[in-house]
Amino acid sequence: MILGYTFLDALYQTCMTMTTVGYGEVHQPTTAMKVFSTSLMIMGVGIALYNLTVMVGTITEGEVRRYFERRRMDRRIAAMSGHVIVCGHGRVGRSAVEHLKAMGAQVVVVDTVPERVVQLLDPHLVGDCTRDEVLIAAGVHRARALVATLETDADTVYLTLSARALRPDLVIISRARTVDSKEKLSLAGATRAVNPQLIGGRRIAAFALQAHVAEFLDVVMHDDELDFRVQQVRVTVHSPLAGKRLGDLDLEHRSGARLLAYRPGPRLPFQPNPDDDTVLAIGSVLIAFGSLDQIDALGGMAAAPVTA
Question: What is the pLDDT of residue 183?
Fold first, then answer.
């Protein structure tokens, strides 16, 4: 239009120049038209190439950064052992992660929603944890335990089945949204099915009727500033305690820790204040109370000897 073209002729000439089609001139070119067209070609192609470069660079830079971040995270997870896998980073999952970290546990978080985990400093994966390959990538074969807090009980049951098939000896704690689903999760292989509402109701009732007992248990389990704990000590197949009588071992005198209860095996009832004739079975658990040093001493007595 600067050169006297109509709007349609100017638009046609510009598009033909920019797209390098070049059917022919709309009007016989003058010197001014040639100068203008040359400037338009150089500037137009330059602007187009610049915009394309910026767009491709932005996309490529983001993809490359995510690729290397993912590789770095995969290497961190591959180097972990004895960690806890938390599947589902919703309200309950976040609370579980916070408490696990407060107790000194290493955690790998898995969730299908990227926004829930991408800002985490902890090792994490974005994926469907009901799939075997995702559980394997999270280190299920090296994990200490798995916590399942998915959105639905159906997904939690499927995850529990998958994890149990991959690791028959894995400790699996599954969140049950309803009381009825607890039995299904236990049948699916959960070591323990937990209903947060039921536990919350019990704690409220305990604080209402036995406030001092409830507060004491809460403090010894969760207050990191105290020097005493209630903790479990497992008797493994290679433990020097296996097959021995408590009276012969004299654990309380040697460690200083107080033995509160004994459990012969999973799902078996606890035996409070076990007597001296109690024989410690393989896979059994001692519940002990004492200072951190006393608990560590008891754990050292139960640990399997290190072989060269």
Answer: 85
Q: Convert 158-177 to b/e letters by CB count within 10 Å (16 or more is b).
A: bbbbbbbeebeebebbbbbb
Strand ranges across the sheet with 228-234: 228-234, 285-291, 258-263, 271-272
Rounded Cα–Cα distance for residues 156 and 181 (Å): 10
| Cα separations in angstroms, 77 against 40, 88, 127, 189, 220 | 55, 17, 14, 25, 31
Q: How many CB atoms lie within 10 A of CB 290?
A: 22
**Claim: this prediction has a pTM higher than 0.90:** no
What CATH number belongs to 79-194?
3.40.50.720
Q: Where are the domains of the chain?
A: 7-66, 79-194, 227-302
Q: Name residue, tokens 């109701």.
A: 201
End-to-end CA distance of the chain: 90
